[in-house]
Design brief:
mainly alpha; single chain; about 70 residues
């Protein structure tokens, strides 16, 4: 498999280098988003009911809610 970065123009490579790594906050937001996507997927597939959805949704967001345990 080819290295996709080699196919980029010099300007694109420069912009990519400026972006850098994700911050801790960005990483947490991505994790939260993945958890929400997973829960919504279960809901739309009929694996959980609306009440379970509303109970699980706040609990999935970085474990911020202490009432989930």
């Amino acid at each position: 498999m080819r290295n996709w970065e080699q196919d980029l123009s010099p300007i694109a490579r420069e912009r990519l280098a400026k972006i850098g790594e994700l911050t801790q906050e960005e990483k947490e937001k991505m994790i939260d988003s993945e958890k929400v996507d997973s829960i919504l997927s279960e809901f739309y597939q009929g694996q959980i009911d609306p009440e379970s959805l509303w109970k699980r949704l706040p609990c999935s967001l970085s474990q911020r809610s202490e009432s989930c345990q």
